[in-house]
Amino acid sequence: MTAILLLAGCLDSGGKTARESQEYGGKGKQPAWDFKYDPPITITTAIVDENRPNAFKPGESLTDNVHTRWMEDNLGIITKFDWIVSKFEDADTKIRLALTMNGKLPDTFNAEGDILKNLLKADRLLPLNDAIEQLAHPKLKAALEKYAYTMTEVTKDGKIYGLPRLGAGDEGTVMWIRKDWLGKLSLNPPETIDELENVLKAFSEQDPNGNGQDDEVGLAVPLKEGPWSWMGQTDPIAGAFSGQMLCTSDIKLFWNDDGNGGLVYGAVHPDAKKYLETMASWMAKGYIDRDAGMKDSSKAAELAVKGMAGVMFGPFWMGAWPLGDTVKSDPEADWQAYPLPAGPDGLKGKAQKPLYGIYTVFSKDFKNIEAWFAYYNKLLAKNFGPQDPYFDPRFALGYHEGYDYVIKDGKVITVNFASEGVPSAQWPLADGSSIDMRWMLYPLTGGAPVLPYMSTDAIRKLSERSDAEMSTPIEQSIKGLNSAQLAAAGIAVAEQELEIPNRYHGPLTDGMEKNGVFLQKLATESYVSIIYGEKPLSYFDEFVAQFYKNGGDVITREVNDWYEDNKP
Fold it and tell me: Which InterPro entries match (predicted)?
């Protein structure tokens, strides 16, 4: 007998539950979080194992760890991996093979781009309209209604075939600067692009790290994938000159208002010249690392952490990692966040972090969608605290004692175990760090369930009153930020109105599928060549012509056809 969650009685699965006489809501009835499948059910999935350090304790693995055992013992859900691969392209290959050979797909997995498009064409995915209406957490449903555009890519003939992996959104770019270097060189925090250039010049030429060597640059930036990345991005430089946001590494980012009721790919808009001119000037003057074109976000951050760069743009959380590690090489290091610099006309702007990207999808043959939602709702409710009907009190202190937290003298401790006096035998890992719970907790959801801007109110609350009572888990997590992070979060929230969104939310078009990879490579290489001075600024016009000649014109038509039908 297949056991199903009592809350899903409205979906006819033809099974029974051990608690089928109890229903959610009302006095004496079963709380929403309390369920168990008896006998247990198995949900298959797939994962890209990037072999992160600190992901598991010795002897544990993706397939056998404290959380998989907890799920089976407490929820009656067994997780089985149909495949575990080390590269995202290998996961794509697995799905392509399943489509080509009409093979079995996992019950739930992640998909995007052409893979998602082909899954929809092949009619291999489960429609979710009824499940969302009847099973989804009310806050998730509200978010999907508010940000309905996040589902256009998985909507076909009025049916929804996937759930967007929603992003927090509230980690938009701030300007991080070594405050101690400003003081050492008698500089004020820059408020304009011109003032920022003066700071970059001083940081590059006046030996602020004091080692007597000419080993500093002003700006740490990754240019390996162009001007847009997850950390170290230079969108505020573009935003100081124009409302056009730039991305060369993704043909779907950023499509901006062209001023005539349509959309234009920002990387080919004439305003991009102002960004390129500035970056090329800074590179020529030595204010940017000459190896930036070979560095991704993490490598660029290493330059800052090693005390060899004094400015870096990025999210508010950088105040802990990676910038917090700078004190290991310089105990006096003090990174602080500042408002974005204004351009010559007073303009400021930054890119809105995409609120979605990859999708969680389900095989058309999946029979236990109610179980997936039950688990997702439980993880999402962890953010909102005991007042949420789906909040599991077993997670009140954390997920698993000895993994993401320990208790000493009645106090819950999540970091700095040694300084808090926790005996080393009780540390989650021998090096004193916590387990990286991202791998362990989310095998069925693909990541931590969050909702757009769900931390904004908590950030504002604590920014306005440092002694404000923080009660919900979201508020407590914000209170747990270090002082640099909290100040940066306050600046990020205060400047949210500067965010410029991507305006294309449609599927990967035929033109994108055919020419997107080539155009991304063309755009990134052209930008890097201009910034490095290998090509003159005038080369931009040749690049634009090549962009449109090699499929950009078709893609622009496709995007604008979609926009005409989907304008807000």
Answer: Bact_solute-bd_prot1
For residue 475, the tally of other CB atoms under 10 A from its CB is 20
Two structure tokens written together for 491: 């600046």
- Measured at the CA of 437, the angle between CA 250 and CA 484, to 5 degrees, comes to 70
Q: Where are the beta strands (DSSP E) in 92-173?
A: 108-111, 155-156, 159-160, 163-164
CATH of domain 6-169+356-393: 3.40.190.10
Distance between alpha carbon 192 and the CA centroid of its chain, in Å?
Answer: 28
Q: Give the closest residue to 326 by CA, choosing from 302, 293, 359.
A: 302
Q: CA angle, 545 as apex, 508 and 224 as ends, to 5°?
A: 60
pTM: 0.89
In this structure, what token pair is assigned to residue 107? Answer: 């019950």
d(CA 339, CA 192): 10
pLDDT in tens, 122-180: 999 999 999 999 999 999 999 999 999 999 999 999 999 999 999 999 888 999 999 99
How many other CB atoms are found less than 10 A from the CB of residue 136? Answer: 19
276/16 Cα distance (integer angstroms):
63
- CA–CA separation, 412 and 400 (whole Å): 12
Question: Which CATH fold topology does 174-351+500-566 show?
Answer: D-Maltodextrin-Binding Protein; domain 2 (3.40.190)
Measure the CA–CA gap between 240 and 385, rounded to whole angstroms: 40
Taking the alpha carbons at both ends of the chain, their separation in whole angstroms is 48
Helix (H) or strand (E) holding 116: helix 113-121
Three-class secondary structure of residue 280 per DSSP: helix
Main-chain phi, psi angles of 73, to 5 degrees: -70, -35
Return the closest-CA partner of residue 352 out of 547, 164, 503.
503
Residue closest to 320 by CA, chosen among 484, 148, 120, 547: 484
Distance of alpha carbon 121 from alpha carbon 330, whole angstroms? 56
